[in-house]
Amino acid sequence: ADADSLWVATNHHVIDPEGAFGQPRVTVVFDSGTPAQHVVQGEVVAEDVRADLAILRVPAAGLAVTPIDPD
Tens of pLDDT along 4-57? Predict the structure, then answer.
């Protein structure tokens, strides 16, 4: 990720293939069902249908994200 965007890994089968201009449409919900719920549109940047995996880029504005600790 950079200062303007975050990367999200998800299952490929949850992507809506009928997005605008032939691009899949993805809505990402952070903190679902809580008062802090935040909904953003994501962009598919990589996908593997056979592995059921997709990597999304989402805008970072307004999101407080804790990086994964590799240790």
Answer: 888 899 998 888 676 656 667 788 888 889 998 889 988 999 989 899 999 999
pTM of the predicted protein model: 0.74
Cα torsion angle, 32, 35, 40, 45, sign: negative
For residues 11 and 26, is the Cβ–Cβ distance under 8 A? no
Tokens 């990086």 sit at which residue? 67
Closest CA to 28 of 1, 67, 54, 50: 54
Kindly give the pairing relationship between strand 26-30 and strand 38-48: antiparallel
CB 63 within 8 A of CB 1: no
The beta-strand segments (E) located in 1-71 are 5-10, 26-30, 38-48, 53-59
Q: How far apart are CA 49 and CA 21, in angstroms?
A: 20
